[in-house]
Design goal:
It catalyses: Couples ATP hydrolysis with the unwinding of duplex DNA by translocating in the 3'-5' direction; ATP + H2O = ADP + phosphate + H(+). This protein is an alpha/beta fold. 44% of the residues lie in helices and 12% in strands. It binds adenosine-5'-triphosphate (ATP) and magnesium ion.
């Protein structure tokens, strides 16, 4: 059991009693060490499987841990998220503690927020609703009641989508409405569990008799509410093992804070504190870049950074590539991915990671064009997003009745026409303030304007009808997500995962850090996000950025400030110059004119493709089904359904 561990990991695995805190960088085997710790304790007969509760950050991580424990001969241990552990307990104790059965979980929460807002006399659009919902969620995980929302939000630097007093009002109405309808939400699961454990000594004692040993992974991102729950589970005991990396705190916007991790020893003076620095995941080249990135970090988390030492054989230098525009960047990545696959790297060992989900469309398209299967993690496919679908309806209507549409008066070229139609949908050329759903929605629609600019650049005579046809083709050409495919994911959803080859795209000012990161703390969180991205790579790491958004556009972007002085090959990074030339930066698209020159004659029109095999479709009948006659229907109906919905708009 202990053989596959290094001396420090072994120390973690054998420290089975009392408070234990593992502070360690990415890829040092934290998750592996705690899994072995549980298995070792169980196999040695020291821990009863049913008395251990292991808490992880996502259901996927919990599932993986259960599988791992089973392989190590320690089945029966509860490995869950905070939510699923609390929900189970709540269901069990509700009849006794409260009476009746637990109210059901609300399934359309945003609708409930909309109803609550309406009862206060506010009409919120979809983006605002999602942002207000996020504010309510944040309030609940930070245990802020409606009356305290405004001052608490100001203190936390929240960028509220509406006036704070209005949000507080909607929040209060939402709580009332929820009670009246007899439903609870996700956050209530934790809040109610906390309330029951606090109020009912008998219940608390029963839970404490059941669980005696607690293990928490990714502890740097624990919220105050989760921390409170953990304390109630423990009571006055301290058999708790936490592992985390303050440099990977990336969920501050949801109320998470690394303070619990960093203050662990202060709260538990007798804690065993173990630091792991050997990195088993990444090559020395990747680790060097990760260390250099952290060396420039500031703030509390950075004061606790640990220099990683790679245990792996040397691999290729990370590659930095500068492209003239975003489609070129995506095509460049797709080309490299194709080469990797052709050289034997399985697609499932490759990931493209980006800062915002609105960046996914360009990459979905580029991978589909290159006939590379992919899967999206934690995001809706671009053409399935509600705002994009509604924009599709509006654009189709305008294309059909364009001549009579007063909206289009004075709009002479295609991008202006698209802007005009989208402004009818509430879109503005300037991005809204704030960073939530309103902003994401704006970005999605801005991506459509961008596409219009792309199309106009290669076909100056393109009409709105051509644009709609182009959108249709793109929606149709995107492959269905497959589990064996290349992973497209936001940096936030990539936490804890690893791939042989990682493409970090859009590493430019305005994207990383994102424009709305303004305070020093927000900038530092952006840097940590890049650190999380870099440390996902085992072997090959590609960083790229584009100087302008669309082909032929004005170069308006610069590489991210986080790369200053540490591009692979530059002296600060301590590496050899990469093949790409001075400073280790390659130029993308050799042979293409420099950004700002006339746009390259690239045709972006791609035939609709079969959603199973990716071959172009020709026959009209086939188009409807979006698959060749000889391809089996191996996808769930839902995928077809959504596709049809888009095509029918
Ligand atoms: P993150 O901070 O990203 O969550 P982590 O510290 O949890 O990373 P793990 O995911 O546990 O790291 O381990 C990283 C990789 O290194 C995994 O592939 C794991 O199997 C491997 N690894 C960890 N420890 C060892 C070891 N002692 N010997 C060999 N491989 C190891
Ligand atoms: Mg981990």
């Amino acid at each position: 059991m202990l053989e596959g561990l290094d001396p420090e990991q072994r120390e973690v695995a054998t420290a089975l009693h009392g408070p234990v805190c593992v502070l360690a960088g990415a890829g040092t085997g934290k998750t592996r060490a705690i899994t072995h710790r549980i298995a070792y304790g169980v196999r040695a007969g020291i821990l009863q499987p049913s008395s251990v509760l292991a808490v992880t950050f996502t259901n996927r991580a919990a599932g993986e841990m259960r599988g791992r424990l089973r392989q190590l001969g320690a089945a029966g241990v509860q490995a869950r998220t905070f939510h699923s552990a609390a929900l189970r307990q709540l269901q069990y104790f509700w009849p006794k503690a409260v009476g009746g059965t637990l109210p059901r979980l609300v399934d359309r929460k945003v609708q409930l927020v909309a109803d609550a807002a309406a009862s206060c006399g506010f009409r919120l659009d979809r983006g605002e609703l999602r942002d207000v919902t996020a504010e309510i969620e944040w309030s609940k995980v930070t245990q802020t009641v409606p009356a305290d929302y405004a001052p608490a939000a100001a203190l936390a630097g929240r960028e509220a989508p509406r006036h704070p007093a209005e949000i507080a009002q909607v929040y209060a109405a939402y709580e009332d409405l929820k009670r009246a309808r007899g439903v609870i939400d996700f956050e209530d699961v934790l809040l109610l569990t906390v309330a029951v454990l606090q109020d009912r000594q008998d219940v608390a004692e029963q839970v404490r008799a059941q669980y005696q040993h607690f293990v928490v992974d990714e502890y740097q991102d624990v919220s105050p509410l989760q921390q409170r729950l953990l304390e109630l589970w423990l009571g006055d005991r301290d058999d708790l093992c936490v592992v985390g990396d303050a440099s990977q705190t990336i969920y501050s916007f949801t109320g998470a804070t690394p303070d619990h991790l960093l203050d662990f020893r202060a709260r538990h003076p007798d804690a065993t504190v173990i630091k792991l620095v050997r990195d088993y995941r990444s090559t020395p080249q990747v680790v060097r870049l990760a260390n250099a990135l952290l060396a420039q970090a500031r703030g509390r988390a950075a004061d606790h950074r640990l220099e990683l030492v790679s245990q792996r054989r040397p691999g290729p230098e990370p590659v930095c590539t500068e492209y003239s525009d975003e489609p070129a960047e995506a095509e460049g990545a797709a080309r490299r991915i194709r080469e990797l696959i052709d050289s034997g790297v399985p697609p499932s060992e490759i990931a493209v990671l980006f800062r915002t989900n609105s960046q996914s469309e360009t990459y979905e398209q580029a991978l589909a064009d290159a006939q590379i299967p992919y899967q999206l993690r934690g995001a809706e496919r671009f053409f399935d997003r509600p705002e994009v679908r509604r924009a599709g309806v509006a654009l189709r209507g305008a294309a059909r009745f364009g001549g009579n549409d007063s909206l289009l008066d004075g709009a002479v070229d295609l991008p202006s026409q698209v802007r005009a139609v989208l402004s009818g949908e509430g879109w503005t050329p300037q991005p809204p303030a704030g960073s939530g759903a309103v902003r994401e929605r704006w970005e999605s629609l801005a991506a459509l304007v961008n596409l219009a600019q792309d199309l106009a650049a290669v076909r100056p005579d393109a009409t709105l009808g051509d644009f709609v046809a182009e959108l249709d083709e793109r929606a149709g050409a995107q492959h269905a997500p497959t589990v064996q495919g290349v992973t497209l994911a936001s940096l936030h959803s990539a936490k804890g995962l690893e791939w042989d080859a990682v493409f970090l795209v859009g590493v430019a000012e305005g994207m990383m850090p994102i424009t709305y990161a303004k305070t020093d703390e927000q900038i530092e969180e952006e840097r940590r996000l890049l650190y999380v991205g870099v440390t996902r790579a085992r072997e090959r790491l590609y960083l790229s950025w584009a100087l302008s958004r669309s082909p032929g556009g004005r170069p308006s972007r610069r590489p991210s400030r986080f790369l200053n002085g540490l591009r692979p090959g530059s002296p600060a990074a301590g590496g050899r110059p990469a093949a790409g030339g001075p400073g280790g930066v390659e130029r993308g698209r050799p042979g293409s004119p420099p950004a700002g020159a006339a746009p390259p004659r690239r045709t972006r029109r791609t035939p609709a493709r079969c959603r199973v095999c990716g071959r172009p479709l020709t026959d009209g009948g086939e188009m409807k089904l979006m698959r060749c006659e000889d391809c089996p229907s191996d996808m769930d109906e839902g995928v077809y359904e959504r596709l049809r919905a888009w095509r029918e708009i």
